[in-house]
Amino acid sequence: MHHSALLNVMIAAARKAARSLKRDFGEVENLQVSLKGPANFVTAADRRAEETLYAELSKARPGYGFLGEEGGVREGDDKTHRWIVDPLDGTTNFLHGIPQFAISIALEREGAIVAGLVYNPATEELFIAEKGKGAFLNDRRIRVGGRKQLREAVLACGLAHIGHGDHAVVKRETGAMLGEVAGLRRLGAAALDLAWVAAGRFDGYWERSLSPWDVAAGIILVREAGGYVSDCEGADEMLAKGSVAAGNETIRKEIIRVIKSA
Ligand code: IPD
Ligand code: CA
Ligand code: CA
Ligand code: CA
């Protein structure tokens, strides 16, 4: 399939970082693990993958700004473009040998997300989207699910780890949702949760206490797959608020209704 030059840059960088993640996943028992906070793990694998992504992306697009989970902000001369990168989304899964983790790369132009990539090296599933051009999984067009009723829907959610988020809110909201849906899942990698909504595997997803790199790429995937994303209050402030609610427009609104009443 023919991709734009921009997507080719993102794909090449992701494939290179994926090689290092795959090596580390195969020898996860030998990895250096440190704690950023309670149950907030970071490994040499996260750091290595981020450095590879930074090197590859800034070689191909010199001057673009870069925001990464591990390295923070790296300013560039070009103030209109910024990469938003999570080198390893789903570190806890990774450390447990659970093959649900991903590289997430988004490109922002003048504050708007214009391209997104989410790649799971373990399954080799590559989700990509560019503004106005649709969303794809390994070169096949993807669309959000069509179910309109929560009682038929399978949703993904987040369960913040120790020392993270407001557990009282998480309990209230997930508790309220349990009485409404066909199924509720917590797979543990926000970027993939959104990508799976884009692919119609999940009918919807919501989570709070997220960071821009968890969701920036996934947001454009869902939108280009015909879906809708807002923050958990229904506004368009996902990166600033660190929350998302996603699905087709009916399911997204239903999620907001249930969590508001929780
Ligand atoms: C985490 C995952 C997880 C979400 C957490 C994130 P990380 O990212 O996306 O699903 O619940 O809030 O921090 O730390 O594995 O990149
Ligand atoms: Ca992390
Ligand atoms: Ca993450
Ligand atoms: Ca991460």
Number of strands: 15
- What is the spatial order of strands in the main beta sheet? 4-3-5-6-7-8-9-10
- Described by the principal axes of the CA atoms, the overall outline is globular
Report the total helices: 8
Main sheet record: 8 strands, mixed
Total domain units: 2
**Computed structural class:** alpha+beta
Q: According to CATH, what is the topology of the largest domain? A: Fructose-1,6-Bisphosphatase, Chain A, domain 1
Overall mean pLDDT: 97
Task: Determine the CATH superfamily of the largest domain.
Answer: Fructose-1,6-Bisphosphatase, subunit A, domain 1
| Oligomeric state of the chains present here | single chain
First-residue to last-residue Cα separation = 45 Å
Helix percent band: 25-40%
In sequence order, what are the helices and strands, one letter per element? HEEHEEEHEEEEEEHEHEHEHEH
GO molecular function, one term: inositol monophosphate 1-phosphatase activity
Family: Belongs to the inositol monophosphatase superfamily.
EC number: 3.1.3.25
Organism: Undibacter mobilis
